[in-house]
Design brief:
This protein is α/β, with parallel strands linked by helices. The chain is built from 13 helices and 11 strands. It starts with a helix and ends with a helix. The protein binds (2R,3R)-2,3,4-trihydroxybutanoic acid. The site of (2R,3R)-2,3,4-trihydroxybutanoic acid has 12 residues, from strand 3.
Length: 331
């Protein structure tokens, strides 16, 4: 009897060991997601939502660790390069530097191209948006969804900007993007391309007078501590994206690839909502933190930088016609 009971105990123990999931088992895929902004920014909300959806839908077989605030690189261009080098698995961030990897991403950088967010998403969520995202496959990346950075506005420490003439001579940091730089040159500004990670210090030290970004970035990066004047120029709509390194995406089983695509779309819609609310709420907070806010007549700004279209349309190659399609969609 004694022998019998011991063998039963042994059998049960073996079964428990084999059947019970091994607590804390290493996930099949452990991925690093990087972005360039603080955890208070909408990107982080979108990144965490993506993480949560993917981990839940894969039963923890895929684990995503989110690294905010440039922890995986020295700015967005660096993070995007990381996708190609294998140091970053997932990127959440703006399209700003992407024109340096695939020229046709410059399509979205033309000044005053988009009239409002309805116009923006009629393009990004349609055939043009799908086509532009697909171009990343040839660059070692898989673009999964369009998030939102937002309409970009000017800040500076030197003077109030009531009209287009008031920006002449300002030294403004731009993203590493030749269309943005050209736009500011046509307005008489001295553009300084710089990684986002260096901007706050440069403003603090006075090596630049100002910068331009959407309201959520201006507030969550505490630029009110080093900038006095906010001018609501809305001169470019800056899309953001969820992009996976193609080597990583291709290594996933088909069912996980589908989960990634669906989770990215859901996270992007969620992030756009968060970003939109921040854009509406944060202008008052910027005023309360001492910023003077002006809303100049934008027509002179638009007229002054119209030449950028002719100067850079050729960069879009066979997709140059998409620029006219986007303009037409806004009429
Ligand atoms: O993506 O570099 C920039 O100005 C970007 O808008 C910012 O990092 C958020």
């Amino acid at each position: 009897m004694k022998y019998c009971s011991r063998s039963v105990v042994l059998l049960v123990a073996v079964m428990l060991l084999v059947c019970a999931p091994i607590a804390g088992a290493a996930p099949r895929f452990s991925l690093k997601l990087g972005h360039a902004v603080p955890e208070e920014n909408a990107y982080h909300y979108g990144a965490v939502k993506f993480k949560e959806l993917v981990e839940a839908k894969t039963g923890g077989e895929v684990q995503i660790d989110v690294f905010p605030n440039n922890q995986l690189g020295t700015g967005e261009r660096d993070l995007i390069e990381g996708l190609q080098l294998g140091t970053v698995d997932v990127y959440v961030g703006s399209t700003g530097p992407m024109g340096g990897f695939e020229k046709r991403f410059l399509l979205f950088d033309f000044p005053f191209l988009f009239k409002d967010k309805k116009h923006v998403y009629s393009v990004l969520d349609g055939e043009i948006g799908r086509h532009i995202l697909s171009l990343l496959d040839a660059k070692g990346m898989r673009g999964l969804a369009w998030m939102e950075n937002g309409f970009r506005n000017l800040t500076n420490v030197k003077r109030s900007v009531g009209g287009v003439g008031d920006v002449k001579g300002l030294k403004i940091r731009t993203m590493e993007n030749k269309v943005h730089m050209a736009m500011w040159r046509t307005l008489g500004v001295d553009p300084t391309p710089m990684a986002w990670s260096e901007v706050f210090t440069a403003l603090q030290q006075g090596t630049i007078d100002g910068q331009e970004n959407p309201i959520p970035v201006i507030y969550t990066s505490k630029l009110y501590e080093v900038q006095k004047h906010l001018t609501l120029t809305r001169h470019v709509f800056s899309p953001a994206m969820i992009v996976v390194a193609k080597a990583v995406f291709d290594s996933l089983p088909g069912e996980y690839q589908k989960i990634f695509a669906e989770a990215a779309q859901e996270a992007a819609l969620y992030e756009r909502g968060v970003c939109d609310k921040m854009e509406n709420d944060f202008i008052d907070l910027l005023k309360r933190n001492g910023m003077e806010v002006t809303t100049p007549d934008l027509a002179p700004f638009q007229d002054a930088c119209r030449s950028v279209y002719e100067e850079f349309k050729g960069e879009l190659g066979e997709d140059a016609g998409l620029l006219d399609q986007i303009v037409a969609a806004g009429k």
